[in-house]
Amino acid sequence: MNTQQQEAVKTEKMAYPSIKQSWGIIGILLLVMIGYSIPVGLIQYALGDVLQGPMSFVNYAVPLGIMIFIAISFKKKNHKNESAIAFNPFPLVILPMVVIVTLCMLVINIEITSWVPAPEWLMDLFKNMMQDNIWGFVTVAVAAPILEELLMRGIVLDGLLKNYNPWKAIVWSAVFFGIMHFNPWQFVVAFLIGIVMGYLYWKTKSLLLCMIIHAVNNGTAFFLSKSNPDAITWKEMLGLGTVERIGLFFAAILIVWLAYRYFENYFKKSDEPIEESKYNK
Predict the structure, then answer these.
(1) Are 209 and 98 in contact (CB under 8 A)?
(2) Are 263 and 196 in contact (CB under 8 A)?
(3) Per-residue pLDDT tens for 204-228?
(4) DSSP per-residue string spanning 213-231
């Protein structure tokens, strides 16, 4: 790239969002959640347990929906040439491997979670969210995959991929995905699955595939929690000893690595070119 081209890139408006703007999205989301929770919390306190299930769904979906609306509005207003969120198709041949990787990541993340257990009050909060009714399932396995993927892959990662080299964009989007849960104990597991979804979004440009991964991950976790509500580790769920747990953990890591090599080979042979960043950063 010659000097004139470099200057042209520097002066060209960056796609939305940049890393700095992504921090802004996280900050606005936090403010929206706080602003929403105060009046709604007072209403729920007055109502008691009435409509607890539907209200849990609404309390989760509304702040994220507001944030998605704000981000899309800003993108359309200031970056008119950028395409809207697209639900591109993905090659169905990779779907079985994607599901296997997702389940392996769940194995890895459950083991990691056991290393630094969350406090009891936080576990009670999770159990409340995964309540034993249709609203708990819809919130965790339907609303979360749709809304979080619209925001984090459909808007944040999509913009970062246009501004930075792919792995920088993927890692930063995974960081933001971890932070947006506003829970230190959930950060690492959200970051790791965020890397997987970010990589596959980069390769396929399919938001639908990311939603499927997210739904499989959350749905499986939901049903595991229902099968044994007090279990949070593989030892408690399946009665596995230390050796078995370590073996399962490293087997899952190996499968994820082999799947990564499979995806790399598959997409190298694919006729569909991967759109690269126009910014050499």
Answers:
(1) yes
(2) no
(3) 999 999 999 999 999 998 888 777 7
(4) HHHHHHHHHHHHHHH-TT-
- Taking CA atoms, 71 is separated from 66, 68, 101, in Å, by 9, 5, 30
Distance of CA 160 to the CA centre of its chain: 15
Q: Which residues contact 168 (CB under 8 A, 6 or more apart)?
A: 160, 281
Contact 139, 60 (CB under 8 A): yes
Q: Exposed, middle or buried by CB within 10 Å (0-12, 13-18, 19+), for 128?
A: exposed
Predicted pLDDT of residue 103:
96
So where are the chain's domains? Answer: 3-269
Q: According to DSSP H, which parts of the chain are helical? A: 3-11, 19-47, 52-78, 95-115, 120-129, 134-137, 144-151, 158-163, 166-179, 184-204, 207-227, 234-238, 242-269
Give the chain's largest Cα–Cα span: 66
Centroid of chain to Cα 92: 21
DSSP string, 72-85: HHHHHHH-TTSPPP
Under DSSP, the state recorded for 130 is T
Q: Which residues of the chain have pLDDT under 50?
A: 1, 3-4, 6-11, 273-276, 279-281
